[in-house]
Amino acid sequence: MNGKMKRIGVLTSGGDAPGMNAAVRAVVRTAIDNGLECIGIRRGWSGLINSDFVRLDSQSVSHIINKGGTILYTARSKEFLDREGRARAIATCKLLGLDGIVAIGGDGTFQGALALSRQVAESGQELSVVGIPATIDNDIGCSNYTIGFDTASNTAIECIDKLRDTMQSHERCSVVEVMGRRAGFLALYVGIAVGANAVLIPEREVDFQRDVVEKIQNLRLGGTTHFMIVVAEGAGSAVEIGKRIEEELGIVPRVTVLGHIQRGGAPTARDRETASRMGYEAVQCLLAGKGNRVIGTQEGGIVDMDMEEALAMTKNLQMYRYQVLEALTAKGK
Length: 333
Ligand code: F6P
Description:
Rossmann fold; binds 6-O-phosphono-beta-D-fructofuranose
């Protein structure tokens, strides 16, 4: 493939994450800077199946580095899970004359990229796929960091700080649900940063008595009159947790589900800068003839890894962070 690279496609897929636009911009600008043409595939993998595309030039990615969401739109494609759907996507790549694809997204996007690259290899067609990790969940095994996590954390922190003000003045208990269907990275990080009294995450079995009831009881004994409980959506529903707190402790908590607000907004400096470097490196991989790679961060630096190996990697939530949270929570005595 090396030297033959002429035209590449870029897409965003799965749940959006602030900084995706900065990554798209970096891919487009780096491609153009190296004499490549760039095609934007709209609505993720489904755009590749349905020939839903737009030609991108340098100007078409102006003024997007500071914007949340994705100008390419995003979607989750059921059709792409089947060989038939992927065969249509491969045909679109051939029709468009694509030599490479940069796919920006989370775990589902990467699984799609891997399935596509395997099927491309079987078909004998030449097409390199490179993945860029972008999800507010920060749950991609091969990368310490995923685009969007910092912005989402800061959004959640800003909201919870505001809740804390009113909880404190009314002497109430707040239960806040943050995103994270399968991962508690966001909940735990945010919980430490807001000084939560308890954080419930999917990676640690919830013992309601130990993790919520006793904590609040101890805090009450020590004179605390307002409480902040942060729950990752994968660890339970904040509404249900609120009901149980009322039943067990006789206090009526106020429940807030932050929801999709966490996925929007202007990306932070960290997300813009990381996305820019990842986009740049993704195109460098394609230019160097390195196909089927995944970009990631390790020890702060940007690295690229073999896609098969990268997707086999797992990332454990550092329980050390949980210990920090526990140590810093006010005790009754
Ligand atoms: O982007 C990942 C994520 O935020 C998960 O934490 C969450 O469960 C999911 O997306 C919800 O996405 P949607 O409502 O778009 O299906």
